[in-house]
Amino acid sequence: GCGNSALSHDLHELGYTDVTSIDFSAACIAAMRARYARCPSLCWAVMDIRALAFPDASFDVVLEKGTLDVLLVEETDPWHVSPQAAAAMRRVLAEVSRVLRPGGCFISITFAQPHFRKPHYAQEAFGWSLRHAACGDGDAGAFHYFLYVMRKGQPL
Fold first, then answer.
1. Where is the Methyltransferase type domain (predicted)?
2. How many other CB atoms are there within 10 angstroms of residue 125's CB atom?
3. Which of 66, 63, 72 is CA-nearest to residue 116?
4. pLDDT one-digit tens code per residue, 2-49
5. Of 56, 107, 108, 140, whose CA is between 20 and 30 Å from 146?
6. Which residues belong to CATH 3.40.50.150 in the chain?
7. What pTM, to 2 d.p., does this model score?
8. Element holding 105 (H helix, E strand)
9. What contacts 82, CB < 8 A, 6 or more positions away?
10. How deeply is 51 buried, as exposed, middle or buried, from its count of CB atoms within 10 A (0-12, 13-18, 19+)?
């Protein structure tokens, strides 16, 4: 779910010109195509993260920034996620694992703390390693966010 974030364009400007962005909203994707029409190497597609239309082993990197949080937004207890939400998360992560090439990297950026997110990511079935780091500007009043990095083909 790229939404209307400038991240894809920012990556393009940093030299990552082969960037594919997806969102379930056709209106959003149309707006992003128009906004960044001057960058023809940016690819925009309407797609559901639960059923990616890409072939197996299509990507070196999959990056999500807050998209997975949507799957858990209606949960009332982060310690006890509903079976439906857990299944949705597994379905999406299985799709991410499927489209990653061997040695590929899945990067997840979220406010979700490790004790809530790691149980979803740390599953042998996905075939990846897991590391995480807390990020923030060091200001005591600032919210920290978390960076999770999974490497396909490395041991959990």
1. 1-107
2. 10
3. 72
4. 999 999 999 999 999 899 999 999 999 999 999 999 999 999 999 999
5. 56
6. 50-152
7. 0.93
8. strand 100-110
9. 75
10. exposed
